[in-house]
Amino acid sequence: MPSHPDRTGGGSPELRAKGRGPTLDRNLRIELMMSYRRLQLQFKALIKSISEIHGCADIHLLLLSMLICHQEISLRQLAELAGVSESMASIAVDELVTRGWVNRVRSSEDRRRLVLRLRTEGAQFLHHVMGEGSQFDEIISQVFDLTEPEAQFLMQLNERMLGNLQRELGLFQSISGLQG
């Protein structure tokens, strides 16, 4: 079994050289990671249920949501943002085009390049399914039963952990010669 860098004594000298030990008990760190995993699975189950009720796939809602934020985006960029293969994104986009929710158009910056653009019908569908007053919105409002300061503090903690994870992953990959 390969050894993995850890700040508890083993691992690479580069990681140990940082001079910081873990601030949380190992079991608590694992519990915290598993709680994020359980949250992710529950959110995924919610999106899947909501999408099935509205006659589409969960990836359709994901891609439509991303197209709200990114007005002109290539298929490759959309797949990368969604964390899915280009092939899976292509199949889902074909379905979105067929439903009249997305257009493939020439880029306004480079006429050789095809980009995806959300149509008004797609935005309306997404608003109906996930917008203010929707069943999804009601459920999420109950899930995030937090005060504004609690939510802001949670976001700060999440951003801090995300930054730490990105930094450590980059260091790990550079030490071990892996690409991310």
TrEMBL record:
Secretion signal, residue range per the UniProt entry: none
Residue ranges occupied by any HTH marR-type domain in the UniProt entry: 29-163
Location of the region described as Disordered in the Swiss-Prot/TrEMBL record: 1-21
Pfam families per record: MarR
Taxonomic superkingdom: Bacteria
SUPFAM superfamilies: Winged helix' DNA-binding domain (SSF46785)
GO molecular function: DNA binding; DNA-binding transcription factor activity
InterPro entries membership: HTH_MarR-typ (IPR000835), MarR/SlyA-like (IPR039422), WH-like_DNA-bd_sf (IPR036388), WH_DNA-bd_sf (IPR036390)
GO terms for biological process, alphabetical: response to stress
PROSITE patterns: HTH_MARR_2
Keyword Iron annotated: no
Keywords: DNA-binding
Protein name in the entry: DNA-binding transcriptional regulator, MarR family
